[in-house]
Amino acid sequence: MATFTNQATLSYNNTTTTSNIVTGEIVEVLSATKTALTDTYRAGDTVTYVVSIVNSGSVSYSDLTLVDNLGEYTFGMGTRVPLTYVTGSVHYFLDGVLQPAPTVIDEQPLTITGIPAMGNTLVIYQARINEFAPVDTDGSITNTVRITNDADTIDITASTTIFSEDSVLLSITKSISPSTIPEN
After folding, report:
1. d(Cα 68, Cα 104) in Å, to the nearest integer?
2. 172-183 pLDDT, tens digit each
3. How far apart, in Å, are the Cα atoms of 85 and each of 44, 47, 123, 160, 182?
4. pLDDT tens-digit profile of 74-99?
């Protein structure tokens, strides 16, 4: 939170005096959080993300844009994206009531437009773990969403991290072929 200070100066008959200094705090009117419905992942899993936008002010915002980097990270001279948006999975709730789905204009990075923020807004969508996800025991994906508006008066971010599950995905199948053998 940002703070500000204020002090008054009073001049009368060539005498100047100052008041005490007061400090105030600028409270964010629009805030956002992002959570994953699971803390861990394995190769091929689908993760559900929930972005919560809370408008505690009296002004409604009608056309926010949400851009999710889908966990993009730098690798060598390029970038990798460990999550793939599940097409058609976006849902939007306003004060707990399901609304018509907002417009997805791009899937990489995931870009959703036309999101109003009046009270409590939830945007829910899914992403699949792909071949660029680190699946070693120390692996993690930090996924960041950025929320802006056309007037450039809003620019907030929210992130969440999920971790690679510590179990090994290994299965062994044993069979015999042919299954019957004539006696020798």
Report:
1. 11
2. 787 777 777 777
3. 12, 10, 14, 16, 55
4. 998 999 999 999 999 999 999 889 99
Find out whether 120 and 127 touch, Cβ atoms under 8 Å: no
Give the N- to C-terminal CA distance of the chain in Å, as an integer. 85
Q: Which of 124, 130, 83 has the alpha carbon at shortest distance from 107?
A: 83
Distances (CA, A) of 170 to 147, 167, 173: 40, 9, 10
Give residues with Cβ within 8 angstroms of 18, minimum separation 6: 7, 8, 9, 10
d(CA 88, CA 14): 72
Amino acid of residue 37: L
List the structure tokens of 144: 């960041």
Separation between Cα atoms, residue 143 and residue 131, nearest integer Å: 16
| Alpha carbons 171 and 15: distance in angstroms, whole number | 88
Where does residue 99 rank: exposed (0-12), middle (13-18), buried (19+ CB within 10 A)? middle
Cis peptide before 178 (omega within 30 of 0): yes
- Alpha carbon separation from 98 to 9, 86, 88, 90, 126 (Å, rounded): 54, 19, 15, 11, 17
Report the distance separating Cα 151 and Cα 32, nearest Å: 18
120-155, pLDDT tens digit by residue?
899 999 999 999 999 888 899 999 999 998 877 888
